[in-house]
Amino acid sequence: MPATPLTRIADALLDRAVVPGYSKLGPALRRRWWPADPAPGSMAGKRVLVTGATSGIGTAIAEGLLDLGATVHVLGRNRAKTDDLVARLTAENRGADVVAEVCDVGDLAAVRAWAADFTGRVDALHGLVHNAGALPPERSETAQGHELTLAVHVLGPHLMTALLADTLVDGASAVVWMSSGGMYGAGLRDDDLEFTQGEYSGVRAYARTKRMQVVLAADWAQRLAGRRVGVYSTHPGWVATDGVTASIPGFGKVMAPLLRTPEDGADTTVWLVATRPSSRAPHFWHDRAQRPSTLGWERSQDPTAVGRFLAQVATDTDVAR
Ligand SMILES: NC(=O)c1ccc[n+]([C@@H]2O[C@H](COP(=O)([O-])OP(=O)(O)OC[C@H]3O[C@@H](n4cnc5c(N)ncnc54)[C@H](OP(=O)(O)O)[C@@H]3O)[C@@H](O)[C@H]2O)c1
Q1: 46-77 residue pLDDT tens
Q2: What is the rounded distance in angstroms from the CA atom of residue 157 to the CA atom of residue 173?
Q3: What's the first-to-final CA gap in the chain, in angstroms?
Q4: Which has the closest alpha carbon to 229: 304, 320, 164, 306?
Q5: pLDDT tens-digit profile of 155-198?
Q6: Ligand 1: which residue has its CA nearest to atom 21?
């Protein structure tokens, strides 16, 4: 059935009530009224890169895009795991080519080296999905001395977007940042990106950097608007993956009966890449609809804080604004 004012209210209530919206009930109900699926074969002849493709939601995103006919470059940080994935997806003959890419997204030197090689091989990209994610138990730093979640969620993807920007096809490509509903609990910290102040918590570092992804995606949306490249951030809901089992086992156990499948977690990302819906700032999506990126007490981001944050990211990555 098509969306009506009543279904829009029901959809928003599911979202604000959190548990029903983020759990598997969300897509079970919303698929009665959400926008149509991408047409079969709609990604034929198109090429998409998916990071964090070796597990959970990333694998499901790759599978969803292959099923629509895309050539999918699956990026992992572990060569053997990435090759195993390519072998499995190729054997399943999901309709198009799968290409292995190996890079540690949090290592800025590795991103530069990999991107130089990739852009030598590929000159047209229709989708770039920043899905790689981590929730570490304690503070650690990357080869360049950056806090891990900042590097994996923010700095690496930012640098990768800049280095691949010329390959994105004008008017026919999309960039998607996989954030998290956990970002609602974190304001934008422009003063302590590296989480050096106060007691470190992996959950808080995760939420802060997932907030940063939403802000960064909105900035990229502005930067690429003239080229009609769609840029979105999204959250997948609560999804049963190895990442959840390993990083937040208590949550995974208690919520097990309500967790979404990886396919449900991947749905909106696949749909965004395949349909490139028109979007307004701040471009945050969940279950095929735009959602607010801030709730209640904080109606919009402070532009001064956003400016300071973006300037620091530019400095850290050596990518001019
Ligand atoms: N599951 C949920 O409920 C949920 C909720 C909100 C948001 N998310 C987001 O959804 C995304 C996928 O999560 P998931 O649950 O599918 O987690 P997952 O099963 O742990 O998968 C994470 C993926 O990211 C990769 N990765 C981690 N660090 C990397 C690095 N430095 N370089 C390259 N790849 C790296 C992992 O590679 P390896 O295979 O080598 O470990 C893995 O493929 C994440 O961004 C996460 O924050 C998930």
Answers
A1: 999 999 999 999 999 999 999 999 999 999 99
A2: 17
A3: 44
A4: 164
A5: 999 999 999 999 999 999 999 999 999 999 999 999 999 999 99
A6: 55
Q: Does the domain made of 38-317 have the CATH classification 3.30.1370.20?
A: no
Structure token pair of residue 62:
């790759």
> How far away, in angstroms, is 141 Cα from ligand 1 center?
18
Q: Say if residues 75 and 50 touch (Cβ distance below 8 Å).
A: yes
Q: For the chain, which residues make up each domain, given as ranges?
A: 1-34, 38-317
Q: Is the CB of 238 under 6 A from ligand 1?
A: yes
**How many Å lie between the centroid of ligand 1 and the Cα of residue 305?**
28
